[in-house]
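Hey, resending since the last one bounced:
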Amino acid sequence: TNTDANYQQNMAAGIKLFRAKSFSQAQAYFEKAHKISATFGTSDPRYVNSLDWIAQVAFRLGNYEDAKHAYEYVLYARKKTFGPNSTEAASTQKDLDLVTKAIKKTD
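The structure tokens again:
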């Protein structure tokens, strides 16, 4: 659909900028993609995936609380979809642990 194509374009642009370490610019595209993905439903993989990228950007920008909240939802969704012992859940748990450590260091 047109909405999915728009989502994909925003994600592709965000990923390209993220890899170029242009995190603030990437964030804008991921947020657009995330807003579009909400129309697919909050359990849709596109919603969860765009939120995961938003969390990664927030972490790189030092916005640890934002990253933590995003990763918590991503972890919840991935456990529900793939199971609590899945590689997807384990990978997200690892990201969440890094954010939690970063928050403790700044306290």
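The chain has five helices and no strands.

Sorry for the duplicate.
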